[in-house]
């Protein structure tokens, strides 16, 4: 397997997360709105993974 490749044995559709840039595969719960799905998780959707952009340091 190539570095950065997604393990996808069933040939499911793949998208790249708009927040973290990681690839993610189709899930049954997204069947009705797959075209509008942009994020791989609730954490990315709500922006909780922003500490990585500041080098892991919190301001304050």
Description of the structure:
The protein starts with 13 loop residues before the first strand and ends in a 14-residue tail after the last helix. The protein has one helix and two strands, in the order ββα. By secondary structure, the protein is mostly loops.
Give a brief description:
Helix content is about 10%, strand content about 10%.
Per-chain topology:
Layout: E1 14-16, E2 23-25, H1 42-46
Antiparallel strand pairs: 1-2
Structure characteristics:
single chain; two-stranded antiparallel sheet; 1 helix; disordered C terminus
**Overall mean confidence score, pLDDT:** 80
Could you spell the SSE succession in H and E letters? Answer: EEH
> How many E-type strands?
2
Q: Rounded to an integer, what's the Rg over CA atoms?
A: 14 Å
Global outline:
flat
Residue share in β-strands: 5-15%
Query: How many H/I helical runs?
Result: 1
């Amino acid at each position: 397997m190539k570095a950065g490749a997604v393990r996808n044995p069933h040939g499911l559709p793949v998208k790249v997360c708009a927040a973290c840039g990681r690839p993610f595969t189709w899930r049954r719960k997204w069947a009705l709105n797959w075209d509008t799905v942009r994020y791989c998780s609730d954490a990315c959707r709500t922006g909780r993974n922003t500490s990585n952009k500041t080098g892991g340091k919190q301001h304050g």
